[in-house]
Design goal:
The complex is a heterodimer of chains A (861) and B (245).
Chain A lengths: L1 H23 L1 H40 L4 E5 L5 E2 L8 H4 L3 E12 L7 E6 L29 E4 L1 H6 L7 E6 L2 E10 L13 E5 H7 L5 E2 L1 E5 L2 H14 L4 E4 L2 H43 L1 H9 L4 H47 L10 H28 L2 H5 L3 H9 L3 H16 L9 H50 L1 H39 L4 E5 L12 H8 L4 E14 L2 E8 L1 H7 L10 H11 L2 E4 H6 L7 E6 L2 E11 L8 E5 H7 L7 E6 L5 H11 L6 E5 H44 L1 H9 L4 H43 L9 H18 L1 H8 L3 H6 L2
Parallel strand pairs in A: 4-8, 5-7, 14-18, 15-17
Antiparallel strand pairs in A: 1-10, 1-11, 2-9, 3-4, 3-6, 3-10, 5-8, 6-7, 12-19, 12-20, 13-14, 13-19, 15-18, 16-17
Helix pairs in contact in A: 1-9, 2-7, 2-9, 2-10, 2-22, 7-9, 7-10, 7-15, 7-22, 9-10, 9-22, 12-14, 13-14, 14-15, 14-24, 15-22, 15-24, 17-18, 22-23, 22-24, 22-25, 22-26, 24-25, 24-26
Chain B lengths: L4 H7 L3 E10 L4 E11 L4 E5 L6 H8 L7 E6 L2 E2 L5 H11 E4 L11 H12 L4 H14 L15 H13 L5 E5 L7 H17 L3 E6 L2 H4 L4 E6 L2 E6 L10
Parallel strand pairs in B: 3-8, 3-9, 6-7, 7-8
Antiparallel strand pairs in B: 1-2, 1-4, 4-5, 9-10
Helix pairs in contact in B: 4-5, 4-6, 5-6, 6-7
The chains are: A alpha+beta (861), B alpha/beta (245).
Amino acid sequence: MNGHRHHHVLGFLTRAFIVRNLMQNKLRLLLTILGIMLGVAILLAINLANHTSLERFKQSLDLVAGQTNLEISPVAAYDMDETLLFTLPWVWEKQGHFTPVIVQTAVPADGSRHLIYVLGVDMLADFRYRPFEWETTGQPGDPLDILKRNRVYVGHSFAKQNQLKIGNTLNLLIHDRQQSFEVAGILAEKGLSAAYDGNFIMMDIATAQTVFHMPGRINRVDLIVPTEQRAQVQQRLKKELPPGLQVTVPERQGQQAEKMLKAFQLNLMALSFIALLVAMFLIYNTMSISIIRRRTDIGTLRALGTARWQIMALFLSEALVQGIAGSLLGCGFGVFLATQAIKGVSSTVEILYTGMAVSGVEISGPILLQAFLLGVGLTVLSALPPVLEAASVSPAEATRRGSFESKVQNLSAILPVISLILWGLAYWAAQQPSVDGFPIYGHTASLLTVLGVALVMPWFLKYTLRLLKRPMKGLFGAEGRLAVENLQGALARTSVAVASLMVAIAMTVSLAVMIGSFRTTVKAWVQQSIQADIWIEPLWRKLNAKRRINPEVSKKIRSIEGIAYVDNFLEFPIEYNGQPANIAVGEFDVFAKKGNLQFLDGEATRDVMNRALKEDAVIVTETFAYHHHLKKGDTVTLETPQGPLTRPIAGIYYDYASEHGYIVMPWTLYRQHYEGNLLSGIAIYLEKGVQPETVRAEISQRLDNQTGLNIVTQQGLRQEVIRIFDQTFAITYALHVISITVALLGIMNALFALVLESRRDFGILKYLGATVQQIRRIVLIEAGLLGFLGNLAGLAVGFALSFLLINVINRQSFGWTIQFHWPLDFLVQTFALIMITAIISGLFPAHLAGKTLAPNALRDE
Amino acid sequence: MPLTKTETALSQPIIQLIEVSKTYSTHGVQALNEISLTIEPGEVVAFMGESGCGKSTLLNIMGGIDRIDTGTIRLLGQEITHSTDAQLTELRREKLGFVFQFFNLLSTLTVAENVALPLELAGRDSAETVFKKVATLLSQVDLSERAHFYPAQLSGGQMQRVAIARALVHEPQIVLADEPTGNLDSKNGQRILKLLTNYCHKHQQTLLIATHSRAAAHYADRVIQMRDGRIESIDPSNTPTGTFA
């Protein structure tokens, strides 16, 4: 009975207090919902884009793995000897099977920029591992065709995209050469055909070995063993496999992919969270305004016997409604944004990690639900402080006009103390190490810093506005001073509006400083470390480091006049202590003479290289040393085909090519422990005074204008590195444009609230002879002031955050050392842009203020 | 070209209303019903009647703050019936002063800043002149020592004195006071009325007071009784030039 009465009361109060209020403030409701929507949408978009790029890659790995339940692969080498297969027949006794596999990539010779994954398998036996069907019109004519050379079997979507039919010729750039293939079969749409987003072809392993210059070599052995035998077979293989090989379950490849992308994806997620954080300020802003305005009513309700919990339930339901509406819209818009974000995320993932292009977004129910719940949850959470405050006040206090404002004014003296505590905690957090490679404490430190600044805002504004009163009057007359007074009189609201803009600007500024610093550092590094005059590499090597050049190329060009040194270079991805890493091989003697690596301890390249040559030592990059906690003089142990190789580290140098890092060894050491002589690239140093363009032309001619090679001069290569850098960070900028938009919605929202609150004052001003223009000007000056103060605080906090980003978050995620650099032009542009947009966001509220009818405004009283 | 105070006084009525009607469209309430009225320069007129009789609307209309549906209004010799918002704003800024029941001071401004506001909005006087005018007015309303106080730190009577100083600081020809004593006790109310009427008489300013207080009517040269948007009676019992000690 009692419960029923409570329901009835709450229902009545909700209708009278919440629904009517929302209906009367449609515009502000819209702005708030828009803010939540954008926050949720951006988080969801990034989450979906991340999820899609990783899941598609993992699905492709699964599709290619097929029924395989064990895999043999090299740990720290590019490929392995196929004679391994002769040692495996005992697997048959366990009712198991095994088959060799080559996984490589090629590029269509038609100029499209995406890689095609090439699977080289035993076409007679492979259906057992990777069941597939032929398309009705894609059946191979003669079953024996599969054994013929240069026949390829293409996936359904690849065939469709390229309008391929049986018997058509397909030209592919394989390593450094163009090769022609005949399409001998087309796989049906389902299953294997969908691997690598359809950019997938299959060929017989013998053909693959020939065209990829891998005679007698394979990348992997796939095994199918009965489940009950799997552990036993795995154990025996572990014992009997030659050195440098590992036996793993196929799921491990997916886990490796996750590991490889983890730092990148987690940091992107953290960045996308900013928009939501800014949206939280917006909610807080809206809810506090909405509650402050009705504080007297709350007091009256309390005096009439409404319980505290009823007041809380009322206002939380208001937040809940907005949270649900904003989050639902955010989910819809987020899916749309994801289709845009996937381009940015996927191209970075493609270039830096998987080499696989992804199109279309994979909608994931759990991710949608997570974004929705997060949106609703954070909305309610941001509403909680003002709601708790409203419920806690005594009826007498609430009915007093301006009691909340004076509370904030009084609190403005205490809040700085809390801020100091938060900053102290932030300082402590910044000193903590990463957790499982993720800089959780670094992000916590950023959050604490921002919170600290948000809390100190009333204090900061109280004094800054006081200082601004005189200059503003000087600049804008009575309107200038009235604007300052209005903001000062509504310190609670002004603080939240400025704080939300501050958060968005701080994040943008810190990222701009970080990216600007990173770019400058990389530019300087490129200038220093790319000393070769000409660089030859297989086309699209940027997309896949496994693409190779035949060493014959190096021999052919060596005798060209004007060439002083040739540095043959090889790199391949490996696993080091279960983490992704890379091995690079180079001519250390050439490096000693011409190289210019920057070593951490400042030692000259020549000295390090000579010592490394003498001691058969390796050098490692800063990132590798950081991730594996190594220092100069320590040793690294590699699982090579010849057994474990332990070598000392002769030096650690700065490098920005891979976050996972490199172990660089001289060719002499490589040849003792590894097989294969293919190259990743050739660096050419010219004699003094020789024109690179002349030699480049000569090289081209010598190589018969070989189409699969990219011959670039020093300048071209340097530009290429910077181009890739910019492309990688493009999405980060896009994320921040959205955060700023959310913050500007906050400003507009705050201005609406101020205008609403100042209706009476505007009415009085009209009685006193203020013109419509004067009243509009007051609102616009307020907007400008909010923008200016948000900018000012944002810049200051942004600089503090950039220290955290560069020295803690980046360092712990990627291990790079970044030199500080202030991107002044960007900062000036941002400042101006925010000022302009802040003033623009004040236009409509100003218009509304100008329309205030004096008698009505005073009658409302 | 606006007329000077003396010219207006000599030549014609300061306010003239001819068959003025006003209906509030939102509620369909007829606030004023064919009101015709003439007010002479320097006159103190009290409009009396119950709540909702139309006296505040009449004041707003004479103050150029609200518009009429039909009829004609002449203010200071000029017809303002069809004046633009900008013209009315200028008129208010230059020639009119307002005093309200709830004081309507800006809470974020100090006493001196509130008083200075009309001068600052007009932006004509130098800071020094503004300072002088404000100081003079504050001393006349006996609030010099409260110049740097905020409204929240004042009593009701003090707040209304600030509001009066603000209404008079730019030397308006007409002062419109809407229930100036409605929010004050009788002692303070008397004091405010005395202050206002004495000042207006001394400076030959026209004072229009909307009130339902009999005591307030005592200070007026003429008492106009209103009912349902019409003038019920006019009582010219007091002399226009009388002052109160």
